[in-house]
Design goal:
The protein is an alpha/beta fold. The protein contains 6 helices and 5 strands; from the N terminus they run βαβαβαβααβα.
């Protein structure tokens, strides 16, 4: 079992629960947050080994949080996997491909999320 503490941040509670079950079944400890503000508080309490971060969330989106974490000396080396449905939705949102490409995240995984792909990405980053 690989182990490690993963913080999962997404505003879809059903997805969070599903991915939590998948990750825990592979031996990971999983923390949960449902937007960027909750994620910041969770990171201050316990620094994750890997952060799984949705792009489109209320209050503070994944792009904003990723940018802040990567510019902070204490959090800049936390590996970040961005989950995004933005690729298909860009024309109808305020998000852009350029903004996504400028992120320093270690990986991008498209939604709907393939559980095996996500587990492989987490294992690779640990």
């Amino acid at each position: 079992m690989p182990g490690g503490y993963v913080l999962l941040v997404d505003d879809d509670p059903d997805l969070v629960e599903t991915l939590t079950m998948v990750l825990e079944s592979k031996g990971f400890e999983v923390g949960k947050a449902y937007d960027g503000i909750e994620a910041e508080a969770a990171i201050k309490k316990r620094r994750p080994d890997v952060l799984i971060l949705d792009v489109m969330m209320p209050r503070k989106n994944g792009y904003e949080l990723c940018r802040e974490l990567k510019s902070n000396k204490w959090t800049q080396d936390i590996p970040i996997i961005m989950l995004t449905a933005v690729g298909d939705a860009v024309p109808t949102t305020t998000y852009s491909h350029a903004e996504g490409m400028s992120m320093e995240a270690e990986d991008f995984i498209a939604k709907p999320v393939d559980a095996a792909t996500l587990v492989e990405a987490v294992e690779r980053l640990l």
